[in-house]
Amino acid sequence: MGEDSRTVNGMRVTSNGFLAVPRRASRAPRAGSDKFRRLPYGRGVGVAGSMYISGTNYCIYPNEMPQAAVQLKLDRSGRATVFCGASDIGQGSDSLLAYIVCEELGLTLRDVRVVAADTDLTPVDLGSYSSRETFMVGNACLDAARKLRQEIAATLAGPWGCREDQVVLAGVSPARAATRRRSA
C-alpha cells in the first residue's frame, strides 16, 4: 500500500514509505541477482510486509459484534464463573475479571473461577491487542456483575420483605458498592 490509502479494514494510511523499501533494495548491488534462476524448482526469494495497530480502541475487524462480552454464572454454592473469550497473554486480564466480580458481588477470590479463551464455552472476543483487555473486557465484566447483583437483589427483596437497596451480598451493600463506584 502506498501513501494516502485505506486498508481493507478501513484504516487510513497517510504516509509510510513502504513501497520505497523494495525499490531501493532491488537497486542495491547483488540484490538477489546471485539467486535469480539459480534456486531449485519451486524456490525463490520474496518480500512481505504487514502492519500492527497499537494503542487503539478501534477493532481490527469492524463488525456489528460488541468489542467484548462476558457471561457470568452464579451457582447454588454462591461461587461465580466468568466466561470470557479474551486471552490472557501476561497482562493479567484473567485476574482482573476475578477481582471485578469479587468487588461487585462480595466474593473472595477462591469463590470466582475464570474460564477464558475456550471457543467452545466462551463468547467471542476481538483479540488481545493494543492494551484493550482491561478497558473493554473489564467493563463488560463490570456491567455483567452489576446486572447480576441487581437481579439477585430484586429476586430476594420480595421474599425477604425489604427493598432491593437493602439486600446485602456478602457484606457489600448496594450503597457501599455505589460509594466505591463514585470514588473510583
Biggest sheet character: 3 strands, mixed
Strand order of the largest sheet: 3-4-5
Proportion of residues in β-strands: 5-15%
Note the run of SSEs as H and E: EEHEEHEHH
CATH superfamily heading of the largest domain: Aldehyde oxidase/xanthine dehydrogenase, molybdopterin binding domain
Name of the level-1 CATH class of the largest domain: Alpha Beta
N→C terminal distance: 44 Å
Mean pLDDT, all residues: 82
Using the alpha-carbon principal axes, give the shape.
Answer: elongated
How many beta-strand runs? 5
CATH topology of the largest domain: Aldehyde Oxidoreductase, domain 4
CATH architecture verdict of the largest domain: 2-Layer Sandwich
- The domain tally reads 2
Stretches where pLDDT is under 50 for at least 5 consecutive residues are none
Helix content: 25-40%
Number of helical elements: 4
- Tell me the radius of gyration: 25 Å
Structural class: alpha+beta
